[in-house]
Amino acid sequence: MREWLCLRRWGRDSSLFCSLDVGALNHDPNFDIIVGRWGECSNPNAKCGVSIQYRLGSEFMIIDADSRPFATGQTLFANALPRAEVVGTELASQAFSVLDAVWLQDSRLEELRVAANQANHGER
After folding, report:
1. Spatial contact of 65 and 92, defined as CB atoms under 8 Å apart
2. Which spans in the chain are helix H?
3. How far, in Å, are 35, 55, 78, 83, 89 from residue 96 at the CA level?
4. Distance CA 62, CA 56 (A)
5. Of 39, 2, 5, 51, whose CA–CA distance to 24 is shortest?
6. Residue 35: exposed, middle, or buried by beta-carbon count in 10 A (0-12, 13-18, 19+)?
7. Could you give the CA distance from residue 50 to residue 32 in angstroms, rounded to a whole number?
8. Is the pTM of this model over 0.85?
9. CB 3.0 to 4.6 Å from 10: which of 3, 14, 52, 69, for a disulfide?
10. pLDDT tens, N- to C-terminus, the chain (124 residues)
11. Do residues 52 and 63 lie in contact, with contact meaning Cβ atoms separated by under 8 Å?
12. How far is residue 67's CA from residue 43's CA, in Å, rounded to a whole number?
């Protein structure tokens, strides 16, 4: 079953969501990050969407957020950014910092971390 997990509301700066098949890692999980100011006075124009895909046993890679399901029909952020507008920018650094913290700390990703470790060591 595919689930959207709201992994962390990162203060006033970002929120991270993960789309993965719980109990059956049969696809590369995607991490969708909404970056920007949150709070009562914020608006969608102050936030954008960035997507990072994890290729199991390989790498994290920024992908086109504008083609991801979280980018359609939502009102939380103004722009879902294509890969070319994110790679090599401060926004990419910010997105990876959020993902790194969640990857290392969130217990709901334990199954994924174990599978990644096994794939990295040829046990998959």
Report:
1. no
2. 90-105, 110-120
3. 11, 15, 20, 13, 11
4. 14
5. 2
6. buried
7. 6
8. no
9. 14
10. 445 555 555 555 667 676 665 555 666 788 888 888 777 777 889 889 999 998 877 789 999 999 888 888 888 889 999 999 999 999 999 889 888 888 888 787 887 888 777 877 766 4
11. yes
12. 22
As beta bridge partners, residue 63 has 51
* 121 CB-near residues (< 8 Å, 6+ apart): none
Cα distances from 97 to residues 16, 79, 90, in angstroms, run 11, 20, 11
φ/ψ of residue 107, rounded to 5: -65, -20
Pairwise CA distance, residues 9 & 44, whole Å: 16
What is the length of the chain?
124
